[in-house]
Specification:
Number of strands: 12
Low-confidence stretches: none
CATH architecture: Sandwich
Largest sheet: 5 strands, mixed
Helix content: under 10%
Number of domains: 1
Strand order of the largest sheet: 4-12-11-7-8
CATH class: Mainly Beta
Length: about 130
C-alpha cells in the first residue's frame, strides 16, 4: 500500500459524485499554527492520510504515526498512534489521527507516518508564537 498524501486539516466532508465515485472535501489544510498561549501547552492537530491499495494486495494494513521532535527516526518521541485498517484492493481509504502533544517550546515537530513497515512519510508542523 502507498501513502498518497498526508496533511493537517481543520475538517473534511465525504460526498458522492456520479460514477459512482466519492469526493473528499478538505478544509483548512495547514502546516503551522499559532500557539494559543506561551508554552508549555498541549496541541491536538488533526492529521489526514490518503492511502492507496493496489490491485492484488490483500487490503489489510497498519497505519503508524509517530510525532517526533526531529526529522531523524531516532528523535525524541512525543506521541504515537498505531491502527489497523482494511481497504478494497484498487481503492483508496483515509486515516484520521488526532495527536495530543505537550510542547515546552515553540518551533517544529515532525510527524513520521507509514503503512506496515514501509518507508516513512514525514510531515512538519510548526508551532508559531501566540497572536496578540
Amino acid at each position: 500500500m502507498h501513502i498518497v498524501s498526508t496533511v493537517f486539516i481543520e475538517s473534511f466532508e465525504m460526498r458522492q459524485a456520479p460514477g459512482p465515485s466519492s469526493r473528499i472535501d478538505i478544509t483548512g489544510i495547514y502546516f503551522s499554527l499559532a500557539a494559543p498561549s506561551l508554552p508549555p501547552i498541549t496541541i491536538d492537530p488533526h492529521l489526514m492520510a490518503l492511502i492507496f491499495c493496489p490491485v492484488g494486495h490483500a487490503g489489510n494494513g497498519v497505519f503508524e504515526v509517530v510525532f517526533r521532535k526531529g526529522i531523524e527516526e531516532d528523535s525524541e518521541q512525543l506521541a504515537r498512534n498505531v491502527s489497523p485498517f482494511s481497504v478494497e484492493p484498487g481503492k483508496f481509504t483515509y486515516r484520521l489521527v488526532r495527536g495530543e502533544i505537550e510542547l515546552h517550546e515553540l518551533g517544529q515537530i515532525f510527524v513520521h507516518c507509514r503503512v506496515d513497515l514501509g518507508p516513512w512519510s514525514i510531515v512538519p508542523l510548526t508551532l508559531l508564537p501566540p497572536v496578540a
